[in-house]
Amino acid sequence: MTLTAKQERFVQEYLKDGNATRAAKDAGYSHKTAYSVGAENLRKPQIAAALAKAKAERTERTQVTMDYVIGRLVIEAERDDEKSSHSARIAALTQLRQHLEGVGDPDAAAPLSINISTVEAVREVRVTRSKA
Q1: CA-to-CA distance for 54 and 92, rounded, in angstroms?
Q2: Model pLDDT, residue 13
Q3: pLDDT at position 5, please?
Q4: Domain boundaries, the chain
Q5: Are 25 and 31 in contact (CB under 8 A)?
Q6: What is the pTM of this model?
Q7: How far is Cα 16 from Cα 27, in angstroms, rounded to an integer?
Q8: Average pLDDT, the chain
Q9: Contact 75, 69 (CB under 8 A)
Q10: Long-range contact list for 11-19, CB < 8 A, 24+ apart?
Q11: How confident is the model over 28-50, as pLDDT tens digits?
Q12: 113, 114, 79, 71: which is closest to 95 by C-alpha?
């Protein structure tokens, strides 16, 4: 199945920075629906296939793989000489963390964040004890 002109543009725009909402807007979709259209487009098999093909072609053309990028980020994060900077190390570590958490990957699980105040914890303990 071939892609529409908008879908082809979406693929090209998505390859720039991996932002589906921005890609949808830049491809000509409505700004009001860009968030949902972007996510929907990523789930469409023909668009996913076009993205995979374009990424593979880019990797072949540039010879820059994810392993290479991660390796360079690790080098920068661990660098501790006169040419290094604290902000560069933090930026590299942040990007590595994002990679490990699957940021930008729609199939990756979102990091779990749980915030419980002391009052809520005590209330929960009381409820649990009263049921026993």
Answers
A1: 26
A2: 95
A3: 96
A4: 1-63, 65-106
A5: yes
A6: 0.59
A7: 12
A8: 82
A9: no
A10: 11/47, 11/50, 11/51, 11/54, 12/54, 14/38, 14/41, 14/42, 14/51, 15/51, 15/54, 15/55, 15/58, 18/104
A11: 999 999 999 999 999 999 999 99
A12: 71
Backbone angles phi, psi at 109, to 5 degrees: -70, 140
Distance CA 28, CA 102 (A): 27
Residue 107 has pLDDT above 60, yes or no: no
Do residues 24 and 41 lie in contact, with contact meaning Cβ atoms separated by under 8 Å?
yes
- Residue 19: count other Cβ atoms within 10 Å of its Cβ: 14
User: Between these two residues, 78 and 114, which has the higher pLDDT value?
Assistant: 78
CA distance linking residue 132 with residue 56, whole number of Å? 59
Place of tokens 């699980």: 109
Name the DSSP letter for residue 104: T
Count how many residues are written for the chain: 132
Give the tokens for residue 62: 């540039």
Angstrom distance (rounded) from CA 19 to CA 87: 24
CA gap 91, 109 in Å, rounded: 23
Region 96-122 average pLDDT: 60
Is 1-63 a domain of CATH 1.20.1560.10? no
